[in-house]
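Teaching note: in complex prediction, the entire set of molecules is handled at once rather than each chain in isolation. The prompt given to students was simply: 'Predict the structure of this complex.' The entities are:
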Amino acid sequence: MNFKEIIEGVYREVKDIDDRGKLASYIPELAQVNPKRFGIHLSTVDNYQFGVGHYTERFSIQSISKVLALTLAYKIKNQRIWKRVGIEPSGTSFNSLVQLEADKGIPRNPFINAGAMVIADILITHLKNPKKDFIAFVRSLSNNPSIDYSETVAASEKSVGYRNVALCNFIKSFGNIENHPQVVLDFYFDLCSIEMNCQELSETFLFLAHDGKTLSGTPVLTNHQTKRINALMQTCGFYDESGEFAFKVGLPGKSGVGGGIIAINPDRYTIAVWSPRLNAKGNSYKGVRVLEKFTKKTESSIF
Amino acid sequence: MNFKEIIEGVYREVKDIDDRGKLASYIPELAQVNPKRFGIHLSTVDNYQFGVGHYTERFSIQSISKVLALTLAYKIKNQRIWKRVGIEPSGTSFNSLVQLEADKGIPRNPFINAGAMVIADILITHLKNPKKDFIAFVRSLSNNPSIDYSETVAASEKSVGYRNVALCNFIKSFGNIENHPQVVLDFYFDLCSIEMNCQELSETFLFLAHDGKTLSGTPVLTNHQTKRINALMQTCGFYDESGEFAFKVGLPGKSGVGGGIIAINPDRYTIAVWSPRLNAKGNSYKGVRVLEKFTKKTESSIF
Amino acid sequence: MNFKEIIEGVYREVKDIDDRGKLASYIPELAQVNPKRFGIHLSTVDNYQFGVGHYTERFSIQSISKVLALTLAYKIKNQRIWKRVGIEPSGTSFNSLVQLEADKGIPRNPFINAGAMVIADILITHLKNPKKDFIAFVRSLSNNPSIDYSETVAASEKSVGYRNVALCNFIKSFGNIENHPQVVLDFYFDLCSIEMNCQELSETFLFLAHDGKTLSGTPVLTNHQTKRINALMQTCGFYDESGEFAFKVGLPGKSGVGGGIIAINPDRYTIAVWSPRLNAKGNSYKGVRVLEKFTKKTESSIF
Amino acid sequence: MNFKEIIEGVYREVKDIDDRGKLASYIPELAQVNPKRFGIHLSTVDNYQFGVGHYTERFSIQSISKVLALTLAYKIKNQRIWKRVGIEPSGTSFNSLVQLEADKGIPRNPFINAGAMVIADILITHLKNPKKDFIAFVRSLSNNPSIDYSETVAASEKSVGYRNVALCNFIKSFGNIENHPQVVLDFYFDLCSIEMNCQELSETFLFLAHDGKTLSGTPVLTNHQTKRINALMQTCGFYDESGEFAFKVGLPGKSGVGGGIIAINPDRYTIAVWSPRLNAKGNSYKGVRVLEKFTKKTESSIF
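The expected output is the structure of the full assembly:
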């Protein structure tokens, strides 16, 4: 059985399950997305591509962009970034603030909001024009100049992001934010507002399955750095559900509250899924199911 | 370059580094181990074996046995064990008790002490003679009838294990321990007292690199269950350093405060290291260094 | 209006309110008490005494005895006890274990369980026959040789007190318990099992309203020590409801899960109330109401 | 011995002790105060006044103004404010954020920063011109039209108050702040910047020793409300040291990081002390010593 048949099979199996997930309601703009949207797209390092469902419709990739921000910061500063952000899972979200206090303002990893803010702060310090330079980097990864921020979504988040304002000022109070919190927050909300479709997402992340090089051969990260980002996604990519994702799916990956998930099988493929309803842990309900079935049928868990 | 040369090279490189680790001092018996002991042993699914240093000298495997206890419980009860213990990383050790309170007595995963006590409780309930039946199971995995508990080490831990007594009674107060806490604690301390050498350790764990079957073909777990235990070791096997181990080494594994580490490369090999001095996170200082160098040189990180 | 009329009035007003409290159910023996019991007794430093309702029926004073244990330890060791137990409110019960961890085994105050265990440990170290000597002390305070422990209640608590076993062993792990945890726990459960009626309770505590002397003039504590114990009851006497009790009642006091409350008005009187149903914070529902009305009508809040 | 002699005696005893306290360094403007300043002033309900040292020199009253803000909010909204802020001690400062999370944005009491922000928010909603109306209220209490905010100190705090920005946005994220966080923070920093000298401070707070009426007879609060504010100061007025202050001094009171302390003896007097160096808990080192000695010598602890 090949990838195409397996993906079509999984798509059919999951399409009509009773989706017990809920739309991310705290961001006004995301609450309006059609909850029935459902797409899958696979890209292999052998240049095979296949998609089903709404795989060409763009959605807000949200936290998935944290991997891209980390990639650029890692490329620029290499190991020095780990003085300002950790590489350990964060336990329950419940602890985030008390952990930040116990850890004196050093976020546990770059994929929780606090850590992504520190990464955003690093990028602001090192990029000439952070917003412009970052999207240029993302476009170069995907070889797709039409990828862009959504001003509407960014504005929507800024209007209600009190908890993120709290977080960023809290880190600043420990001295682990260099720029003004408002500047960091604006860039952070921009990062989260990037929109892609499943095909673009799986293409953009292909360098992580390809030893750090884009399909056209452009080096993004070293082989070594690439493995480390994959390891980080494995242990920290799904909030409180990272362990469960490793357990059930067995691939490094990252999810966003827009309902997207990207997963990487090193040296083989990337797979992107989109379905907006989220489970209790904030990850796409159908998305997790798709990937669980997919790695089981393809026997491609890395474990 | 083959495994033998790489292991010999890594052994030489790490042997004389300035070992900044410290012996586990809170268990009287472990504090007396010769801190200079250092051994490595590799076993492959192709039946290749190679060891250097003190790889035939036995040591206390301590928490490493939590994987074996989990294996037996998983074999007996399958998915039902996950109602009583989670599969998520625990964040900092600092939180363990408050997390247990927040999670109403359900430990975060089976590799923290609290989780291993729940697994011990499950085994007590389901085994006729827990202590005898468990060691028989371990012996069958390793095909080695001489593996045994150390009564001295178990007694040494029992004499000072106030924090573990606290933990077990705390879980009992939530109703997630069925047997009397004293019975559970006695069995738990026995489990931790098992002794093996590096060769025995890498042989015992080979089933996890071999789709759940021992080298002689005896099924222990299903392929599916095996992948899940590996995933769990990846995300939770090294206390607060699980993220760092995934990041630097890139293999599922488990450490013990006796200074042992076992790591698994699915479908390829297991590798055991022993060096008693521990880093600040409680994992063998030299052991982590050895595995970091080994996966780098063999390019065998799973990521 | 005199005390008698006010107490009779308050008794009538509160007697038939809708008592939304619940019996302490976690101690089997206490769950069997008749929930309709309701008594009040006042003793003044001028030797006036008045009681209504079931004020001559004994009940389990439970945590109220922590004040008596502290009194004896304070008498024996004076200020040195504050090296082993704090004098600050504990915030929510929710934090108790994490606070104990943050504070390295020094309980926040002598009225939370952890603190009372440390006090029990001090008494065990300094008394020849702790159980016998302590009850002798209590009898001398009350001038009543019939006051005693309840073996049944103590046994009932011992059979289910897993959380207290956890607590005591946790403190021991920090080195702040000198004796064996089991010995400390046995004495602790004995202390909590003492039985008195409202009249005996108000008489026993009269020394705290009388500059540290019993009514017959026997010195128990210095004037200075007495004020300090009163201050401690004010800030820490009612678990998470200490602030609310100070706010509504305005007297130092102590409650127990048996439904008893003792309150002290320095230089004037003590008043004991008993009604077994407890509010959500573990304090007698009717008892708090009685004292709120009583201090309002007598205008005898100390604030 | 009368008040004058006792105050002079205490002043001499404490003046030259080895002051191990430290200036509040995190607010630039406060770090510049002369650390040798030391003043005491007493006002009685019988209209007796006496001061020593720098009792006529103004200083930043900081958190002491939280009592005045609470007074005005309590006067306007009466019991309804307790839906939005608690009346319990907060345990260690260490917990503040996690407690706020556990309590869903309801601060533990109105004297921790979080609680004072909610009070500030209430005042903003109910006052026509909050800044102007509040200082008018304070002037009316003290009968002193020259009392004012310090724009310099307020600006100094605003420039570094990241942690307070974090706190206010965090509460807002729970919905317990009605106005824009920036507006609340500006008013909050203004409140903290009020300056008084010891004499003005003891006069301003005299209504709390006088059944809620100013010395000239103007009603501020009811007798009942007054007792409650005193009770609240007793249990929550000194951060983590509230228990110790009750224990050693035995009076309700409130401190500020400017080095001021006000203490109230209901129906008798108020006493203000100022000495800028703070102990480890953030309360005036000499101030606490003065009050401890004063209540001991006057035997006027309320306990």
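Point out the following to students. Chains C and A do not touch (no CB pair under 8 Å). Chain C has one domain: 3-298.
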